[in-house]
Design a protein that fits this description.
Mean pLDDT is 79; it is low at 3-23, 113-127, 253-263 and 345-363. Strands 1, 2, 3, 4, 5, 6, 7, 8, 9, 10, 11 and 12 form a 12-stranded antiparallel β-sheet that branches. The chain has helices at 9-24, 129-135, 158-165, 172-176, 184-195, 268-279, 343-347; strands at 38-53, 56-75, 81-95, 102-106, 142-147, 153-156, 208-214, 222-233, 237-248, 281-294, 300-314, 320-333. It is globular. By secondary structure, the chain is α+β, with helices and mostly antiparallel strands. A hairpin with a 6-residue loop joins strand 3 and strand 4.
Amino acid sequence: MTPRITSPLPLLATLALCASGFAQGAVDLRVTAKKGASVWLLQQTTLSQSIDAQGMMLGCEQSLNRVLQFTVKDVDDKGQRLVEARIARVYGEFDLPMGMGAANFDSAAAPVAADDDEGDGGGGMDMSGGMKALLLAGAGKTFTAKVDARGQVVELLDDAKALLQSTPTPALTGRMLGAPTLNEDALKELVVEAFGERPATPIAVGGSWQRQAPATQAIAPATTQMDLKLAKADAATCEIAITGAIDKVAAATPAEPVDDGADDDSDPQAAAERNIRETLLMKNGKLTGSCRIARADGFVAAADATASVDVEMSAGPWGEVSMSLKSTKKLTRTTADAAAPKKAEATKAAGKPAAPATGGGKK
């Protein structure tokens, strides 16, 4: 009797369907991080600016790195998580104005002595101290947030509010040099990034959704309208593709002015701020990036984003100013060791030469 040979095709087709079934069906991206789960992340941000101020062409660069730890302290019956966020270390470098070199900063390094003129540019006038204070804002601090099942912050707790009260706010000059604002939106975004981008409902590969996020490093308040798509999904990770548009926030209807006897025109800072609000235009604002979520522990595995925007404004004493800004952000897993400075970083002196400013107007 001749043995019957069964075609392998049905079996192969079944195996293929099983392998692809995860991607074909709807994927539920609710946060799965359990109580006690913790992750260390390194956030690396760079900012490049090209500035045309009354024909004088200026350029400046900035790098800002944060070592962050996120720990799930509790999970309630609604799936909300109490998350402790720790800004363990902040370090980086930025260009000083007028070709005066570059200054380094590191919250984990030994403090600079009061009589040390490091970074002062000569003449006993510290040109970097204020900028360093803005960049180091939040370093060594911990705050707590309530996070919903989709990784969005529903509430910042009192320790976060206390942190914000102690955080300096950049003035106009600082914002034009790229000083970040560690405000409520920025704290929320730190926590959101730890869990990655997630849709409100289960979604199939290729499906898309939207989210509006603040652009916290803008010269003036701006938002980023993000278009997100689940690009890949398997048992280990889910990958989200990100594109977006950056634009200025529409000005709110002003309230009736209060006559306190002060003349805004006598305050150059107030006049410049008003001119910026009234004249600022943002063009060509765009964002591209990606995000991978680790399914095993429920935190982000890695993420990257590149944003760019052109800005035009009337800046009071600086006259008409146009700027091109580009920022890159990279988020990767790290360990507690990253919170301690390397020996070379702890002793590295500031003062790297910077390209001198050029004048004479546009060619």
